[in-house]
TrEMBL record:
Ranges for domain Mur ligase C-terminal: 310-423
Protein name: UDP-N-acetylmuramoylalanine--D-glutamate ligase
Matching Gene3D superfamilies: Mur ligase, C-terminal domain, Mur-like, catalytic domain, NAD(P)-binding Rossmann-like Domain
InterPro entries named among the record's database cross-references: Mur-like_cat_sf, Mur_ligase_C, Mur_ligase_C_dom_sf, Mur_ligase_cen, MurD
Family matches, as Pfam families: Mur_ligase_C, Mur_ligase_M, MurD-like_N
The encoding gene: murD
Originating species: Flavihumibacter petaseus NBRC 106054
Similarity comment: family membership: Belongs to the MurCDEF family.
Cellular localization per UniProt: Cytoplasm
Role: Cell wall formation. Catalyzes the addition of glutamate to the nucleotide precursor UDP-N-acetylmuramoyl-L-alanine (UMA).
Keyword tags: ATP-binding, Cell cycle, Cell division, Cell shape, Cell wall biogenesis/degradation, Cytoplasm, Ligase, Nucleotide-binding, Peptidoglycan synthesis
Biochemical pathway: Cell wall biogenesis; peptidoglycan biosynthesis
Length: 446
């Protein structure tokens, strides 16, 4: 009799995990306390997989041999506590998928900021160079769905700390850690050290034949790297130091050095602009170089990559004012990166659901570059308190259209209107994509 697998949470990762369990001959049951998306309902039903919504059948769940948990369900959930107390193994969907990939290899990208861009760029380079690979994880399909329906020799995976919390054997051939800043602390008992440890789990099972790419200019990474016993080959990136093995930028030239190979390229040829994207490009270039992709193909792909929607995305120029959609900036650090790359006066649209934000991090950049702040959220008090002595003009709005209209009225020719909210979007929007789309729509209607 095959093991009884229970899947908690029926989003993209849960449904993917269920399809893989079914394909591998396991008896499986999907349980979600919320409502299932109709597309997922249909998929589970047509695959002959048992599911429930709006409740949890505790008896059935606590009889499982193995539980695959959605990354959105925290450890303090009562059901998770009961499973732990009973000693029933609880794993994440990336751990589950990894168990069935055979000889395939994984490039795993994690970090507080830049992981989506770095993952997408790495995938773009690999595809451009002819590698047979899939884009999985937090971006694209769930890893398990890809393994079940269209397995590949290579998987390029964007991975969150929540997914890393429940790995056991997951072992990427190349692990990339972009940086570590305070984020999601509500899930880590407000202890930054727990979140840091979670990020470093990406290296936990790596061996001497694997690679770990990290940013040597990131203070938090460097303060803590020696606390973990990392067995893989270390490949740093930096703008301050040069390396024999690793990647660095000096005099506006990027050098990527791995084994006997050296790739050099001017930063002015990068499709992605801004200092933070130079770090993302070094990490992706290093990963591509490690797996032996051709230098000319890596160079071409870095030049031809198109920026992601909702991440520093140019929307339009309206009467000399540029509008930029950075709706994916859901924490203060992301907004810091956005402001850091600005060279013209900024009207900044901020606000949403605050995750315990510390706005002092961006105070200096706001003082230097921002001429007005447009608040877009249900509760804007904290933003007003943080910037009232720094920014001469601050206005409150309660929709994307109103925010865009106010920002345009406050702007002069040559200014930039930047939507980089530093907050989650759930007060006024479905998610950050919805926020970004409404922003773009409002700009088109000016």
């Amino acid at each position: 009799m095959k093991e009884q697998v229970v899947i908690l949470g029926a989003g993209e990762s849960g449904v993917g995990a269920a399809l893989l369990a079914k394909q591998q001959g396991y008896s499986c049951f999907v349980s979600d306390s919320g409502n299932l998306n109709p597309k997922h309902q249909l998929e589970l039903t047509t695959s002959g997989i048992d599911w429930e919504e709006g409740k949890h059948d505790e008896g059935r769940i606590l009889a499982a041999d193995l539980v695959i948990k959605s990354p959105g369900i925290p450890e303090k959930n009562p059901l998770v506590k009961q499973l732990r107390a009973k000693g029933i193994p609880v794993i994440s969907e990336i751990e589950w998928a990894f168990r069935f990939i055979g000889n395939s290899r994984v490039i795993a990208i994690t970090g507080s900021n830049g992981k989506t861009t770095t993952t997408s760029l790495t995938y773009h380079i690999c595809r451009h160079a002819g590698l047979d690979c899939a884009l999985v994880g937090n971006i694209g399909y769930s890893f398990a769905r890809q393994v079940a329906t269209d397995p590949k020799p290579w998987y390029i995976a964007e991975i969150s700390s929540f997914q890393l919390d429940d790995i056991v054997t997951f072992r990427p051939y190349i692990a990339i850690l972009t940086n570590i800043t305070e984020d999601h602390l509500d899930r880590y008992d407000y202890q930054f050290s727990k979140y840091i440890a979670s990020k470093f789990r990406v290296t936990m099972n790596q061996q001497a034949s694997d690679y770990f790419i990290f940013c040597e200019d990131d203070e938090v990474t460097m303060q803590h790297i020696n606390e973990f016993s990392i067995q893989s080959n270390l490949l740093p990136t930096s703008m301050r130091k040069e390396f024999l093995q690793g990647a660095f930028i000096k005099d506006n030239q990027m050098t990527v050095a791995t084994a006997d190979e050296k790739l050099q390229m001017s930063i002015y040829d990068f499709a992605l602009k801004g200092k933070h994207n130079q770090y993302n490009t070094m990490a992706a270039g290093l990963a591509a170089s490690v797996i032996g992709l051709r230098k000319d193909k890596i160079r071409e792909a870095i030049q031809s990559f198109e920026a992601l929607e909702h991440r520093m995305e140019h929307v339009a120029n309206v009467r000399g004012v540029e509008f930029i959609n950075d709706s994916k900036a859901t924490n203060v650090n992301s907004t810091w990166y956005a402001l850091e790359s600005m060279t013209r006066p900024v009207i900044l649209i901020l606000g949403g659901v605050d995750k315990g934000n510390d706005y002092s991090l961006i105070l200096d950049l706001v003082k230097e570059k921002v001429k007005a702040i447009v608040c877009m959220g249900v509760d804007n008090r904290k933003i007003h308190e943080a910037f009232q002595h720094t920014v001469p003009v601050m206005v409150n709005t309660s929709s994307a259209a109103e925010a865009v209209h106010s920002a345009f009225q406050l702007s002069d020719k040559g200014d930039v209107v930047l939507l980089s909210p530093a907050c989650a979007s759930f007060d006024l929007f479905k998610n950050y994509e919805d926020r970004g789309k409404q922003f773009k729509e409002a700009v088109k209607n000016l």
